[in-house]
Specification:
Layout (H helix, E strand, L loop, with lengths): L20 H5 L3 H4 L3 E5 L5 E3 H17 L7 E5 L6 H10 L3 E5 L5 H11 L3 E5 L3 H11 L3 E5 L28 E3 L2 E2 L7 E6 H15 L6 E4 L6 H13 L3 E4 L5 H11 L3 E4 L1 H9 L13 E4 L6 H11 L2 E7 L6 E4 L12 E2 L4 E5 L13 E6 L6 E2 L3 H7 L6 E9 L5 E6 L4 E3 L2 E3 L1 H8 L5 E11 L3 E10 L5 H9 L10 E4 L13 H9 L3
Parallel strand pairs: 1-11, 3-4, 3-5, 5-6, 10-11, 10-12, 12-13, 13-14, 25-26
Antiparallel strand pairs: 1-2, 7-9, 8-9, 9-19, 14-15, 15-16, 17-18, 18-20, 20-21, 22-23, 24-25
């Protein structure tokens, strides 16, 4: 099968680049003025479009006065909240780069990300301050600011306006706007360099299909430190002139109440949320009639659950496929006419190929192979990792996704399995290597391999197969890991084996143990 055309039939061409991310976000601000741009679902705190434009400019000016500019990185370690947008777009307007950090990271994990990113400033929130301050100290971060506290000094001041970000005709295809962290197709987390042009283009691509409008109320429960939250919900919602409602974390009752009370029309969630919407009795207690579309991403969802959710809610439900390395989206289903079980068709301006993983030969419709993607939304590369970049993004501009997919005759993409070894837990990427390395620091562990076990709610959970050098209980190893990683990385189980199966080159043969985990239990 040749590459699927970059502009699928019936979809418009999309302008590439030409604006900075904050410029796209604020394009309607003068006209919309007092309309809520961001709204906290629990507290009702509001930032209007006029206040957003003013705040972004003020934050940019305050950062510029501190000498923050091109080449500098500001990290945001916080749950979703309205003023998150001020930090993100203010730093971008000052010419800098933003890296979002998952609020559940331990101090050691956060310090590793801050150091790798070269973060100069860190913005956090009061409940996370102790952990953030420790991480900042370890990583050599210059200053820690707190939402609702010292961050206010970036908004209320007398500094002159900051110089605009790089010339859109010259530098936005090279200037890095965002540096989210992803484990790519394998290994430990890497900083993904997303340029202004890549993010802006991916937002335009998404809006061309998802049909966000000014009348929409978009619920953002997906974390802003991930590209679903940052690119699609916050940046996409604001670029459309919609109101973005923030939730700090997922709780089913709070999620349902926010939809009911704030009259939410759109949201994008992970498969476990769709399963709850399709079957949980709590859903019947709330009026969700305002919903018109629910997007599903981060992991595949079976067609039956997708259909049950759509029928129960009486709204559109459709899946999408994306990666951090593609700014967010690669393909998405038309919410008005989804193909159940499919992640949809490629976005405008996006080419895809399905190739034989062994020899790179193109495969025909219906034949499963590795999905390759090419388009203007691709990353510039992994920060400071040219070898890993070259292994993922080839010389012809094709990004090798590591996903095993097939495409039907109409261009709809179906995800079959993952060639890559990452474990997908509730939308999070859990790298087995990280957990294996941690297990091997325990004095009783001689060797370890971590593989996914299918789970009906989480999608997959990490399970360790451990070779011992001295007696220790599974419970102790579970506790040892849990104390040192974020909750989403914790092991679900530990099994003891006499030896780790390995290839002649010493690579652990995870597929052998993963196959055993997929067997009926």
């Amino acid at each position: 099968m040749p590459a699927i055309p970059a502009v699928p039939a019936g979809l418009p061409e999309v302008e590439v680049g030409g604006a900075a991310v904050h410029q796209l976000v604020l394009r309607h601000a003068a006209r919309l003025g007092g309309k809520p741009a961001l709204l906290d679902a629990a507290t009702g705190d509001v930032i209007t479009y006029a206040a957003l434009a003013r705040g972004v400019g003020r934050v940019a000016a305050a950062l510029a006065a501190r000498g923050f500019g091109p080449g500098d990185v500001l990290a945001v370690h916080s749950t979703n909240r309205p003023d998150y947008a001020l930090a993100v777009y203010g730093a971008m307007a000052a010419g800098g780069t933003v890296t979002g950090a998952d609020p559940s990271l331990t101090a050691a994990e956060l310090a590793a990300q801050l150091a790798d990113a070269g973060a100069r400033l860190l913005v956090t929130e009061a409940p996370l301050l102790e952990r953030a301050a420790e991480a900042a100290r370890r990583a050599g971060v210059e200053e820690v600011l707190v939402f609702g506290g010292t961050f206010g000094a970036l908004v209320e001041h007398d500094h002159p306006p900051a110089t605009a970000v790089a010339d859109p005709d010259a530098d936005l295809d090279r200037a890095v706007a965002a540096l989210p962290y992803s484990s790519g197709t394998s290994g430990l987390p890497k900083g993904v360099e997303l340029t202004h042009a890549a993010v802006v283009t991916n937002v335009r691509q998404a809006l061309a299909v998802l049909d966000f409008t000014e009348d929409d109320v978009v619920l953002a429960v997906a974390p802003f430190c991930h590209v679903i939250g940052l690119t699609l919900l916050m940046t996409g919602g604001l670029a459309a002139g919609a109101t973005v409602v923030t939730l700090p974390r997922f709780d089913l009752e709070a999620f349902l109440r926010a939809i009911q009370d704030r009259r939410v029309t759109l949201t994008i969630v992970v498969p476990p949320v769709v399963r709850a919407l399709a079957g949980h009795p709590l859903v019947d207690r709330f009026n969700l009639s305002s919903l018109r579309n629910v997007g599903v991403g981060a992991a595949p969802l079976d067609a039956a659950t997708e259909q049950r959710c759509a029928q129960r809610l009486g709204c559109g439900v459709s899946q999408g496929l994306g990666m951090t390395e593609t700014a967010a989206l690669i393909a998405v289903g038309d919410p008005r006419a989804p193909r159940r079980g499919s992640v949809g068709r490629p976005l405008p301006g996006t080419e895809i190929r399905v190739v034989d993983p062994g020899n790179g030969a193109d495969l025909g419709a219906g034949r499963a192979g590795e999905l390759w993607v090419r388009g203007p939304q691709l990353m510039r590369g992994y920060r400071g990792r040219p070898q890993e970049t070259a292994a993922t993004l080839d010389a012809d501009g094709w990004l090798h996704t590591g996903d095993l997919c097939h495409v039907d005759d109409d261009g709809n993409v179906y995800v079959v399995d993952r060639l890559k070894e990452l474990i997908k837990y509730r939308g999070h990427q859990v790298p087995p290597v990280e957990l294996e390395q941690l297990l091997c620091t325990h004095p009783a562990v001689a060797d370890a391999v971590v593989v996914p076990r299918p789970d009906p709610d989480a999608g997959q959970v990490p399970v360790a197969h451990v070779v011992l050098r001295s007696p220790v209980s599974a419970e102790e190893l579970l506790r040892y890991v849990a104390e040192r990683v974020a909750p989403f990385k914790r092991l679900a189980a530990v099994a003891f084996i006499p030896a780790v199966p390995r290839s002649p080159t010493g690579k652990p043969l995870r597929r052998l143990l993963a196959a055993a985990e997929r067997a009926p239990r």
